[in-house]
Amino acid sequence: MSGPIHIRKDETFTLNVGPQHPATHGVLRVKMEMDGEYIVKAETVLGYIHRMHELMGENRTYPQVLPNLSRLDYLGAMGYTHGHVLAVERAAGIEVPERAEYVRAIMVELNRVASHLFWFGAFVMDLGGFTPLMYAIEDREYILDMLEAVTGSRLTYCYFRFGGLYNDVDDDFVNAARAFIPRMRKSLKKYDALVTGNIIFRKRLENIGPISAEMCRKYGATGPVARGAGIDFDVRKNEPYSVYPEFDFDVPVYHECDSLARYKVRMDEMEQSLRIIEQGLDKLPEGPIMPKKKPKLIKPPKGDYYQAVETARGSFGIRIVSDGTKNAYRFKLRSPTYSNMSLFDEACEGMMIMDALAMMGSLDLVIPEIDR
Amino acid sequence: MNIMDTINSMLPGFLTADGLAGIADEAAGVVFLIMCAITLIGGVIACNSERLVRAVAGLAVCFVGVAALYYYLNSPFVAMMQILIYVGAVCITIAFAIMLAAPEENKKHGPAGPLSGPLGLIAAGLATIGMIGLALKTDFIAMPKVNMGSVKLIGVELLTTYSMVFELVSIVLLIAIIGSLVIARHGRSK
Amino acid sequence: MDLTIFNAVIAVVIAIAFAAANAAYLVLAERRGAGRIQRRPGPNVNLFGILQPPCDGIKLMTKQLMIPGGADKALFMVAPVLAMAPAIMSFVTIPFSDTIVAHSMNIGVLMIFAFASFGGMAILLAGWGSRNKYGVMAAVRAVSQNISYEVPMLITVITVVMMTGSMDLREISLSQSGGIWNWNIFPISMKDGFMLQPMMPISFLIFFICSLAETNRAPFDLGEAESELVAGFHTEYGSMGFGLFFMGEYANIVIGASLITILFLGGWDCPLGLYPGVWWFLLKIYLLIFSFIWIRWTFPRTTIYGLLNLSWKILIPISLFNLLLTAGLLKVF
Amino acid sequence: MSMLNLHNSLTTYLVLAAILFGMGVYGLVTRRTLVGMLIASELILVASSINIMAFNRFTAPDPTIGQIFSLFIMAIAAAEAAIGLSITIAVYRNYKSVDTEDLVDLNG
Amino acid sequence: MGAYFSEIFLGLWSLLIGLGITFKEFFKPVVTVPYPFKTIKMSDRYRGHIELVEDESGEPKCIACMMCQRACPSGCISITTKTEKYEVEVDGEMKTKKRKILIGWDLNFTTCSLCGQCVESCNKDAINFSKEYNLASFNKEDFHFDLLNRLKERNS
């Protein structure tokens, strides 16, 4: 009876986490083979809200796909539309005025902060603390109000256009954004004291849910997941696009590989985003927000185009194969959460279910974006 | 076992306020009969139920009834300990054992020894009848009480006259805990 | 005490009514408190939401009681009652003031713990009876938690009982009367001669933590860890089955708070020793309940092994040391 | 003797204990699983405990002794349950069953 | 041993800090809006469902050019027209010409994604966003808006 235990089939039982489960934040199903509280094997089952965005991208004209991109990730919609407009602009060779670029960067960073805030709240709620979610939502509402005043909607913005923006930002927005930065810095301090320093919280995350750098490379994980594993990769720095080279910001990297490292990366990223917003507001040039001459119908020349952007969840890539018509021939989305989620099966083997679900929270899942 | 039984099983704890002094004797007698019934029903469920979890629940009910009997036997302390230890610890331990080690409750048993049921009944019946007969026939002589058997006296006696037994029982418990940990841990590497 | 059966029944009915009213309105208090902490009002329609608990009750009562297929029907039905009834029974022996007590027992502490031990059985039967994997896992967790926290709790109670020399809650409370400096929570007391119990504040903390754990409250609410195990042992319960579990939980909270008040905070004693009475007792237990609510809405949940480590590696050694120290000091002084 | 006065007579308790004992014996013989046998043996222990307490109340001169002994029985029962539980689990690990019929390695 | 006690102490301290923060929040004013009793004003650029814009005479500006219908990604706009012959005097002589007359402007709001492409594509500024957001119904049919009717109702 000594030696390693041999888990036999009849000793384990299957636990369906999802498709409707509070920890999965949507309709994700994880089939877990459990030995008591321990996970022997996990199998992620995707596709419960698959909506064929890629096929839609091939059947619709380029501007018509635009609203779809914000439906991918309802928490960080700006980043995804940014990817699309950048890809099409590169393909069709459309010039973007400088003011539009700066406004885009500010908007994306604001949205990133909003997304991270919501993730922060939801993550702590996964761990059983409900109040930080409410505080996070209070700050997030502030951002959403600002964005709504400019873009007209709160979640799925559809604000960027090929070559520029839907409409210009006004002074109210600039003032509100300026007021937001010190407020958010104060809030971050509060979160640090309330959550990050909390012994219960730390005990639940320290050395829990290890995701090594090799595993990240193997599965193509990007974003805070990879940066929490010590991989210094940020599309904004490594493959600069838009006006990001103009900004001075750091990429937070932690080498602990545990859930706490991923948590800290995101918390630090909020601070860095605030820095970018600050600089963007200072540098915001006057000028038009749409190019003077813009093609009436967007028909990129024949070719294969790829554009990656750093969204709140990681590197989002969009590949457009154009055959010269107004529809894309192939429209491929590389969504970061899909890659981040795919390592869950391997990473959670042998973990307790509590820790596994805490780790799942630290991956920052947005299910529609996985399923596309 | 039903809801009323459970509620009833809670009753004597306060109905027999100061021992049995303050309460009308009839009420005490009625409650006593109910308690006897609960004890026996619990016992029947415990030894006869198909499902083991129900058997444990029956055992718990039986123990509550027995605790009530102890109350009637002028020792509320032992009654409370009965609930605390038997319901709170022993029954839960057994229920744990069932959950951990008996996944297929409704497994059809192979043909038992054909006589096992009747034999058991006969053996148990004989023992019971014999003991009941003894109990009815014998004339027990009551001796005058030298004290009231209060909780304080129990404590004093435990630590003076029976201190050796007390220590031995403590050691037995310690060994049991360690031993069960060793046996149960064996083979689990995590 | 000349207690007729009529008086006993009246006292018990009052105790039960108090428990039920508390259970109902503590839900409201909890939601209001949570709302204030989270910068939102909470249920506030019709005069601070005073009609919310009756409405909730009516809603729960009129709902259909669903029994999942494959469940053990008898156990499924018995478990909620087993969770609620003992909790209410424990009120019988709690003294609200010198005279207001349904029935004072000379082993009151023991009785409360005996009835509290039904809670584990109820959770176990609920989890197993509903034939739900989440339920079983949660039941196993909750029961192992209950058992491991009963140990430090009882050891701490023994120190208090040793100091008082009685297991009667009323006497324990009376022994601390005369002002805040006589309460058990303070390390030095002057009640009969000089008495030194340097560990008492820590004992109080241990007991407080244990009563949080025993009542399955956050941060120890592993039995109903809603983000992992859906709703734990009452996943399958709806309507009044769930209602009973809910009421039982809040009744347990009131009992926990009363026990802390009696054992450590002087029961119905006024801090200045002037006008002792039931209002002080109520004030103290509601303050404690507020702190329960406050704690619940501040902290995340612990893990199961963190929880057991806390009990076995920290609370039990400290409380054992406290027991030895108190015994020694009682012998010396 | 009136029905309502039964609680003041020693014989009632002895009869009750005898019936419980009989149930325990019956369970011990007919139960086919280790856990079931454990439950039955608890019944037997409780029966003996009732006997001790009854004699303690009605005949013994010093009523503390019986209480002390029933406390000892409780301690032993708790120890027994703990050991029984761990043995059951160990047996289950080895045989994948707690049915006594399956535990026949020493049958020859 | 020192680490053991310092961990307990620091842990307790961190918990107390957390309690302090929530206690402070307890006395701050609530930030939520009690919705059915109070509503918030939508911002100027709020994108509700679309509606038709009238000209000075109260007629819709829409000329039924079908640009919006073509631009809509979800195909939720359906404009029905009929062709009408009319006579016009050109260079002194009467000529018969055809023109399109708008007879129906239906929005299927159940599939609308509020992207604003229709408004942007309109050359005549004939449609814009309403500020309506209190939209709830048990029937799907209630979200098939007849915008011409709505315009009439608004004018009357």
General description of the model:
The complex is a heteropentamer of chains A (372), B (190), C (333), D (108) and E (156). Chain A has one domain (51-161, 169-364): Cytochrome-c3 Hydrogenase, chain B, CATH 1.10.645.10. Helix content of chain A is 49%, strand content 13%. Chain A is built from 15 helices and 8 strands. Chain A has helices spanning 53-59, 62-72, 77-92, 98-126, 131-151, 171-196, 199-205, 213-219, 223-227, 235-238, 259-283, 336-342, 344-347, 353-362, 367-371, and strands at 13-17, 29-35, 38-45, 160-161, 164-165, 303-311, 314-322, 328-334. Chain A has a 3-stranded antiparallel beta sheet. A 3-stranded antiparallel beta sheet of chain A has the order 6-7-8. In chain A, helix 5 (131-151) runs antiparallel to helix 6 (171-196). Residues 1-7 of chain A have low confidence and may be disordered. Chain B is built from 8 helices and no strands. Chain B has 190 residues and is mostly helical. Chain C is mainly α and 333 residues long. Chain C has one domain (5-332). In chain C, 65% of the residues lie in helices and 1% in strands. Chain C has 11 helices and 2 strands; from the N terminus they run H-H-H-H-H-H-H-E-E-H-H-H-H. The relative contact order of chain C is 0.15. The mean pLDDT of chain C is 81. Chain D has 108 residues and is mostly helical. Chain D has one domain (3-97): Helix Hairpins (Orthogonal Bundle). In chain D, 73% of the residues lie in helices and 0% in strands. Chain D has helices at residues 10-30, 34-58, 63-95. In chain D, helix 1 packs antiparallel against helix 2 (34-58) and helix 2 (34-58) runs antiparallel to helix 3 (63-95). Chains B and D meet through helix 3, helix 4, helix 5, helix 6 and helix 7 of B and helix 1, helix 2 and helix 3 of D.
Secondary-structure class of chain A: alpha+beta
Overall radius of gyration of chain A: 21 Å
Using CB atoms under 8 Å apart, which protein chain pair has the greatest interface? B-D, 93 and 82 residues
CATH fold category name of chain A: Cytochrome-c3 Hydrogenase, chain B
The domain tally of chain A reads 1
| Relative strand content of chain A | 5-15%
Radius of gyration of chain E: 28 Å
Query: What is the CATH superfamily classification of chain A?
Result: Cytochrome-c3 Hydrogenase, chain B
Largest sheet of chain A: 3 strands, antiparallel
Cα(first) to Cα(last) distance of chain A is 49 Å
Number of helices of chain E: 4
The major β-sheet of chain E equals: 3 strands, antiparallel
**Record field, number of beta strands of chain A:** 8
Q: Return the string of H and E elements of chain E.
A: HEHEEHEEH
Count of alpha/pi helices of chain A: 15
